[in-house]
Amino acid sequence: MTADRKPLPACDSDFYMIHELLSDAEQTLLKGVRSFMETTVAPVINKYWAEDAFPFELIPGIRDLGIVGIGFEGYGCPGGSTLLDGFVAMEIARVDSSIATFYGVHSGLAMGSIYLGGSEEQKQRWLPAMARMEQIGCFGLTEPLVGSGTGGGLLTTAKREGDTWVLNGQKRWIGNAPWCDLSIIWARDVDDDQVKGFVVENKTTPGFSVEKIEHKIALRVVQNGVITLDNCRVPEENRLQGDRSFRDTARVLKLTRQYVAWEAVGCSMGAYEHALHYAQTREQFGKPIASFQLIQDLLAKMLGNITASQCMVVRLAQLQDQGKLLDQHASLAKAFCTVRMRETVAWAREILGGNGIVLDYNVARFFADSEALYSYEGTREMNSLIVGKAVSGFSAFV
């Protein structure tokens, strides 16, 4: 910067200052999350992404942030609002979507399944250790042949034999599965044809095995696995006592679908901030490219996508905290925010030109990771049909 040039604006993607909706204590917690992500995660994450490996040494730092189990009361969890939970997800994803996904699978999907569907004894048994991250969980719903059709077509079966359940089948794309301690497995009871949830203790349960999925081009830090259940015997005490049908599974998905919407916003924010910094410092034709009209047009469109998505997820969290959140609300946010994310990260890559495909500049990671966020927790098409049914009164599902 020359002596006569004014300081450049900070690379801030909170254009409408939505962080001011949080209390002072919540903002302090969020600043701690941002500091950890920027000073501890950001310097090492590209290395792990390139190596398709997970940074286990980061787990104690995440634990010490006091964020695991936000939104859940008791059982060693910190409580707090859905709005705070969303801001935390957004802040983590602003630096890295893989760490946000790891955190969401454990704190949201796995812990949420036990919190919503477990008995009091089961909550006391598992949630405190999970909140301390002494035990890490995963969520086994998707199957090799069943993705969007999980609501009515699970192939994994559960057969009760006395006080034991025998599980058979496979689960695919299960984040954290290759190394975690507990797996929430959803299976169809062959006797009543209803979906039930089970907590499988991975390392001590015969008939349970996991194979890591290799060669991913997105969320490479998250370790995804194919779980095989071969006459896997699980005691009745490990069946989630409050889950009796897929409607109970859907309660968890409604909460985590909105989490992915927040995560998509964070991914957009990170890509935008890196692109803005690059544009402010990259010079062509004797001046920073941020001074060119076409670059400023892209930056404005990116910021518009981000701000619209931020306002949507804030309202989504308010609806949840008021007990008014419906499936179609979460579905619209997930579909809209991931579409806007996909557009935003593509423009960020465009601003960087050739450097946009080099991991060293970070935007390539956001660009690639966005493809996974776009697809998981319900594709755009499936979420659109959920919304379409709600607003039209007609089901277009086949």
From TrEMBL:
Entry's Gene Ontology molecular function annotations: acyl-CoA dehydrogenase activity; flavin adenine dinucleotide binding
InterPro entries: ACX4-like (IPR045008), Acyl-CoA_DH_CS (IPR006089), Acyl-CoA_Oxase/DH_mid-dom (IPR006091), Acyl-CoA_Oxase/DH_mid-dom_sf (IPR046373), AcylCo_DH-like_C (IPR036250), AcylCo_DH/oxidase_C (IPR009075), AcylCoA_DH/ox_N (IPR013786), AcylCoA_DH/ox_N_sf (IPR037069)
One of the GO BP terms on file: fatty acid beta-oxidation
Gene3D superfamilies: Acyl-CoA dehydrogenase/oxidase, N-terminal domain (1.10.540.10), Butyryl-CoA Dehydrogenase, subunit A, domain 2 (2.40.110.10), Butyryl-CoA Dehydrogenase, subunit A, domain 3 (1.20.140.10)
Cofactor: FAD
Annotated ranges, domain Acyl-CoA dehydrogenase/oxidase C-terminal: 250-391
Claim: Metal-binding is one of the keywords in the record: no
Residue ranges occupied by any Acyl-CoA oxidase/dehydrogenase middle domain in the UniProt entry: 138-232
Protein name: Acyl-CoA dehydrogenase
Source organism per UniProt: Rhizobium lusitanum
